[in-house]
Specification:
Elements (H helix, E strand, L loop, with lengths): L11 H17 L8 E9 L9 E2 L4 E2 L4 H14 L3 E5 L8 H7 L9 H9 L3 E3 L9 H9 L4 E3 L3 E2 L8 E2 L1 E6 L2 E8 L4 H4 L9 E2 L2 H15 L2 E6 L21 H5 L6 E3 L6 E7 L2 E6 L5 E12 L2 E13 L7 H18 L4 E3 L3 E3 L8 H14 L3 E4 L6 E3 L2 E3 L1 H7 L6 E7 H11 L3 E7 L2 E6 L10 E3 L1 E5 L9 E6 L2 E2 L5 E7 H4 L13 E5 L3 H12 L1 E2 L7 E3 L17
Parallel strand pairs: 1-4, 4-5, 5-6, 6-8, 10-12, 12-13, 13-15, 18-32, 20-30, 27-33
Antiparallel strand pairs: 1-16, 2-3, 7-11, 9-10, 14-15, 16-17, 18-22, 19-21, 20-26, 23-30, 23-31, 24-25, 27-28, 28-29
Helix pairs in contact: 2-4, 3-9, 4-9, 10-14, 11-14
């Protein structure tokens, strides 16, 4: 484990120390030694994804939620109760053009606007999320070094050797109350980011680590808070599993004894504080749209504090004013981003309509394929629809187009697959189609509503048919490359994104396939360069794949994609 904050085990000297604190608090007007009751306010954000300002630079319009608004809300709440703690659950430094151009783009100055804003909020601690690793350790080290608050990840090993200022736990004192905060990151970073982004690091099971750490924290603190960058793998009301126990651990963590408050993230759910057994659990959504507030009522027993009751809510930030200090601090970077996003790259010669989940070969996905093939020199390209439902008119194109078309921070790799492995990959990509319903003049394609659109990949550089009526694993027909039927022993180079290459989506073979080439550049950047290089781009699908029967459309109800 990484280094921890040193603390003192309770004993005679601890009692003397409490008396000294109580005497000091008499002068400060805080709770004193003889006071029976007090309240600790815990404020929590997670998955802010670098939404520093209440403005969407990609769509050039106001947005709901921002760190600047969190700053105003926290300042107001601190005035009502200075006995407070402010925490964050991770995925803070990735997600907006403002952040990317400040810390990770070519020629980026390196001054992190999200960290600057969080410093002004006055966070006590934050937990590393999986997206903190998206830009590699050099960027992460630089951003963490700018933090005036503590970063936590008790289940991360190798942090000290890697030069990351990350601790296991933090012991805080507020009004004589000793508060232990244990931080846990998501252990699936190796499945979502390439090895070059986390060299020398290992990620342990957060449940096992918490089980080992919490009893000791319980002995040293009045209140034990666990912050985990993970969501719930089971329904909190029914206990029904949702199949995500390989990346979500909060349900199991909440059942460990000794935890007063479990603060969660990663899944972007708005879960107001609620009791789960003897533990209070919560999650504040995404993009700084909510701040979780939990007020823990404590009573003093034998000189130590004990939680007796609580109340809480997820407080929206939309009506809060943006903190002027935060706005002023990031103004130079915001101006730089606006200029960059308005820079002309080239021209679309025809409109481009992006479907959330197309049911045939699609011009927007084929454009991504073209970029991946040209950037890598691979024979084949694997890609998925990513941009939701968007329509781009014909005319000038700026970097806004590239980031709207490809909103994820993936990079590219080239892997080597055999013909049989390639067919396995394609069968996995079409597993979400569950059949067809035919009535009247046509048939409607059915899909698994629990599968996100970005798991329905297609292959470019080959031709094939998909039979949605066939059993899963037997739906790919007539797979050919260069006009020749693909044989099991054939070998191909395939361009894939880093999420796929790390095992994202559970696609077979990709995580273990031999690496031929790695291009550690965001695909959105490569799209912009492709358009600039070609000048004029005509969106078109080459119809290299199709379903075996005519279809009208997939069901209109499309669930929002889970976070990655």
């Amino acid at each position: 484990m990484s280094d921890t904050v040193k603390t003192v085990v309770r004993g005679p000297w601890s009692v003397i120390r409490h008396l000294a604190i109580a005497a000091a608090l008499v002068l400060l007007g805080g709770p004193v030694w003889g006071q029976v009751h007090t309240t600790l306010t815990v404020l929590f954000t997670s998955d802010m994804h670098a939404h520093v300002l209440p403005f969407d630079d990609l769509r050039d319009r106001p947005a709901q939620g921002s760190v600047a608004q969190v700053a105003s809300l926290v300042a107001r709440l601190r005035k009502t109760n200075p006995v407070s703690v402010v925490l964050d659950g991770g995925d803070a430094i990735q997600g907006t053009p403002l952040e990317y151009y400040a810390i990770a783009a070519k020629g980026a100055p390196g001054e992190d606007p999200t960290i600057e804003a969080m410093n002004r909020v006055g966070y006590d601690a934050a937990v590393l999320g999986n997206h903190e690793f998206n830009f590699g350790l050099d960027v992460l080290r630089r951003s963490l070094a700018q933090s005036k608050f503590t970063w936590l990840a008790a289940n991360l090993s190798g942090a000290t050797a890697a030069g990351l200022p990350v601790r296991d736990e933090l012991i805080l004192e507020r009004g004589g109350i000793r508060i232990a905060v244990l931080g846990l990151t998501n252990p699936n970073v190796p499945h979502w980011d390439p090895p070059s982004h986390w060299p020398g690091l290992t990620f342990k099971d957060p449940v096992a680590v918490a089980a080992a750490c919490v009893p000791g924290l319980r002995e040293r603190a009045d209140v034990v808070i666990v912050v985990v960058h993970s969501g719930f793998e089971k329904d909190l009301d029914t206990g029904a599993p949702d199949g995500t126990d390989d990346e979500n651990y909060a349900y199991r963590l909440a059942q460990l004894p000794g935890i007063d408050l479990l603060l969660t993230g990663h899944t972007h759910r708005n879960i107001p504080p609620r009791a789960f057994g003897k533990t209070v659990v919560a999650q504040p959504g995404r993009w700084a749209e909510f701040v979780t507030r939990v007020d823990l009522d404590l009573v003093q027993e034998g000189g130590f504090w004990k939680v007796t009751s609580w109340h809480g809510e997820n407080m929206p930030t939309v009506a809060e004013p943006a903190d002027p200090g935060v706005v002023m601090a990031v103004a130079p970077e915001e101006a730089r981003v606006k200029a960059e996003l308005a820079r002309p790259l080239g021209e679309l010669t025809a409109p481009l309509k992006v479907a959330a989940l197309p049911i045939g070969d699609d011009p927007s996905v084929d454009l991504i394929h073209a970029v991946q093939l040209e950037a890598t020199g691979a024979q084949l390209s694997l890609a998925a629809p990513l941009g939701g439902r968007i329509e781009f008119p014909a005319g000038p194109v700026t970097p806004r187009f590239a980031y709207a078309l490809y909103p994820y921070p993936n990079t590219l790799l080239v892997v080597r697959l055999t013909g049989s492995q390639l067919k396995d990959v394609l069968e996995h990509a079409v597993r979400g189609w569950t059949g067809v319903e035919c009535a009247g003049s046509g048939c409607t394609l059915q899909r698994d509503p629990g599968m996100p659109p970005y798991d329905f990949d297609t292959l470019e550089g080959a031709t094939y048919l998909v039979d949605p009526t066939a059993p899963a694993g037997h739906r790919i027909r007539g797979l050919r490359v260069g006009g020749a039927a693909v044989r099991p022993e054939d070998v191909f180079t395939v361009a894939v994104n880093s999420y796929r290459a790390a095992g994202g989506g559970g696609f077979p073979h990709l995580a273990d396939a031999p690496r031929v080439k790695e291009i550690d550049r965001p695909v959105a950047d490569l799209i912009g360069e492709y358009i600039a290089r070609h000048g004029k781009v005509t969106p078109a699908a080459d119809d290299n794949w199709a379903f075996t029967i005519p279809l009208r459309d997939a069901p209109a109800r499309t669930p929002s994609a889970p976070p990655r």
